[in-house]
Amino acid sequence: MFLLELPTGRAVLKVTEDPAWLRRARRELGVYRELAGRLGVAVPAVIAAHGDLGVIRLLLAEHTPYPPAPAVTDPEWTALADQLGRLHR
Hints:
Elements lengths: L1 E5 L2 E8 L2 H21 L6 E6 L4 E6 L12 H14 L2
Antiparallel strand pairs: 1-2, 2-4, 3-4
């Protein structure tokens, strides 16, 4: 994983070549390509994506990290639990 500075902002480049991790990387690529817009949860914007038999590449806009747990309010925890529930149906 690499953090990049682009003219449009920061981005994260994820490159998977290890055969032991390719299945998971293909699944992640599928989520971004096919499901992200329908899930109703916050996901990073996909700038570019490519997958073939031996490598998966994802270039994602940097996503603002969630605050540390003590700073999260009860309504925010509830919203997060709701998003996780929708993601894992």
